[in-house]
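User: Hi! Is it possible to get a structure for several chains at once, not just one? Here's what I have:
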Amino acid sequence: MGGDHAPRVEVEGAILAVRELGVRVLLVGQEAAVRAELAKHKVRDLPIDVVNAADVITMTDSPSQAFRRKKESSLHVAARLVRDGQADALVSAGNTGAAMTVARFVIGTLPSVDRPALAAAFPNMKEKISVILDVGANVDSKPAHLEQFAVMGEIYYRAIWGVKRPRVAVLSIGEEEAKGNELTKEASARLKQLPLNFVGNVEGRDVFRGNVDVVVCDGFIGNIALKLSEGLVEHIGGMLKKAIKSSLTSQIGYALSKRAFDDFRKRTDYSETGGAPLLGVRGITVIGHGRSNPNAIKNAIRVASELCRARVNEKIEQELSSAAAVPARG
Amino acid sequence: MGGDHAPRVEVEGAILAVRELGVRVLLVGQEAAVRAELAKHKVRDLPIDVVNAADVITMTDSPSQAFRRKKESSLHVAARLVRDGQADALVSAGNTGAAMTVARFVIGTLPSVDRPALAAAFPNMKEKISVILDVGANVDSKPAHLEQFAVMGEIYYRAIWGVKRPRVAVLSIGEEEAKGNELTKEASARLKQLPLNFVGNVEGRDVFRGNVDVVVCDGFIGNIALKLSEGLVEHIGGMLKKAIKSSLTSQIGYALSKRAFDDFRKRTDYSETGGAPLLGVRGITVIGHGRSNPNAIKNAIRVASELCRARVNEKIEQELSSAAAVPARG
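Assistant: Yes, the chains can be modeled jointly so their relative placement is included. Here is the combined structure:
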């Protein structure tokens, strides 16, 4: 119920997902509103059910207030369905902070995970994906948290992009080991000890160059990186439009090069990559952008379904509990 | 001598600066190489002198080794000229780390400055500039450092862009005061006490939206933000080119929309904005990109000259020493 165009795009996205992916969807929200949207489509034979949730968390609600005061929100109800085994995964395009808080405290974290991490997918120059985590769940992370992010991110990358030995790196300000801050130096030392394909430190520009698959960082930095990238893409799109409007020949040019522009837009559209999983929660949780369109919702459901099928949570718990032989807290 | 195309672009940029800005330039470097470049131009009557420097710091030299072992580098010789009052400003397009180290320790910092900060200019959607500092000089900054960055950045912004009350903000992960990490929360509390136009926290995307003029952050985050932006601009440029090459109609479109593309490139070309000043050093220091072209060198010299004329260092020292009534260390 919390997305910018809820529940319309959520309903349309769910219908796409059910038709294309062969999944079953429970639509959780204010029943009358959801059913009204469903009535616009031919869905009688589709495996879609509606579960009522009276409260609505808005984008301006603070996560902690939403968590404490709106216990009948679609987020709470959906999280309880996951916690109680009635659903395999939670997908939301609502308030990101509220979704993280509700998932973490209603569903709970995996036993070996200290802090769940939000993992965002960035399209890169090699036409592949680089994943950055954490992009918003945690600030003031400790080296042991970055270590857990690396393990979780690597398993996620393997599950979704089918790469056997994803290259894992720490986001820093230079490749040399001596560069970085206290957190990255200590985290790098720890990552070297793990059975990962750890390639060392990378710089901000490497995220887009595609010479790394999984990049770990503190959530404060990851969130700034994500928002900065979104802002810059928006800015460049705006500049291109303006530059093109300013002359007639370039308007004709624009008409002729429209396919190229559309292609460009599509590849810079982060919603295409299907939402960000909150890794480390005891049930699969995928958080989409508030501005998600039906396609983005479908993609988020696809990611959730693939994470379930790949038994990502089992693998995370297994790797982290066996890595606990190495002292991991601190 | 340290830029990617040194000393050719430095010499050409200096000639442009002398002709267009009415400044005097000392070219510091291996004299024979510099004079050979100069000989390609008509410079007999121009106020350009050559000062010999035997050593060359390369882009791969570590800053500390370059500082200790190459005392006759163009950076060292130029820094000593500034320290001894024989030049007003140091401009370099060489190794950024070496330039920061040499400037800081040969020229020295202003008495009230704990750590100099590198300030980068980002073009924004309002066709103005947002300045971020620090983008690379300092990691693990304390709140008092961010406070000094704010004061220095505000004076710099006033001097170069002529805005009377620049809007100053802390880079964080949400506008709400409660959001952020320990550093930003404490820094925000301090900035509120200063006689600045402090507008609170901004997110990554605000840098490009143009609703803030000066953004302060720890150098680790600022450097990642800078490199990430450079990487993304490079990535988008590459995607556009590729998309356009892939179809004939869009090639024709490209020819017709070329002016728009050129305009776009120019506005995303950070070298246009003239290098990054290292604020807080006892002599004006401006560091350009290694890939600077002659125009970027000229712009860096222009910024250096404007900072001198605006007596930026005097103003920084004055404001910080009077703010020292407020306890500033910690």
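The longest strand of chain B covers residues 117-123. Residues 172 and 203 of chain B are 5 Å apart (CA to CA).

User: Great, thank you!
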